[in-house]
Structures are given as C-alpha cells and as structure tokens.
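Hi Y.,

Following your request, here is the sequence exactly as I used it, all 134 residues.
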Amino acid sequence: MATHADADLIIKLYDLRREGVCREARKFFAGWAPKDPDEVKKVGSDPTWTNNAYTRQATTYWEMAFSIANEGAIDANLFAKNCGEGLLFAVKCQWLKLKFPNEWTRTMAEAEAFIAKNEAAKKKAEMFKGRFTW
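Below is the corresponding structure, written out as tokens. Let me know if you'd prefer a different format.
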C-alpha cells in the first residue's frame, strides 16, 4: 500500500516535469514524428542539436523515475498510475528501434524492466503501442 512518502515523491516527480527545459523536451519528444532515417540519426546522435538534447532530457528523466520504482523506493502501483508519459516514451523508443534499426540506439531499459513486472504498466504500454504503426 502506498504511503504519504510515496505520494510526496509522485508530487515531486510531477514538479520536476514542470521545469521549463524539461517541459520543452517532453513536448518535443512526445510530438516528434520522424520522416526519414537521417532525421532519426541526427536526433539520436548529434549532441550539438537541440532536439538531441531534448530527447536525452525527456528519456533520461523518465529512466530516472523508473529506476526509483524498480529499486522499490516508491509504491509500484501508485507509480504505474502516474507514469503514462514515461510508458509512452519507452514504447516510442521501441518503435523507433524497429522502424530505424540502424539509426536509433536509445532504449529505456529501466522502463522496460518496470513494464515487465507491473501489470498496470504492461496494459498501458500495450495501449500506447496502438498509437504506432509496427
């Protein structure tokens, strides 16, 4: 059962998402719909490009949050109810890897580990998969 400390951590994670750069990064990655392998490669590997920085910011933010859940520092079920965007990003990384296997190397291992062991997260991830053409 979730505790007040778990709820406090969920609120802190939400507050971090509201920071300006994090918000812009999340907005970019959520809306990014690559058209060709060159664009994917640039976003995934060119550290001088803003969209590369946004991709790293958005995905590593959620990887940090999933690692907290994977280590048991927060109630997993409470976290699963509040990590939809992170699940979407993990599914998007999987889709990008399938669609652009030579250009996309970023994975979200912490998110994937969480999905594998949490039924609510698994169901949400499956729902998000419906948004992508596999």
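Helices lie at 4-17, 20-31, 37-45, 50-70, 76-81, 84-99, 109-117, 119-129.

Thanks again,
Q.
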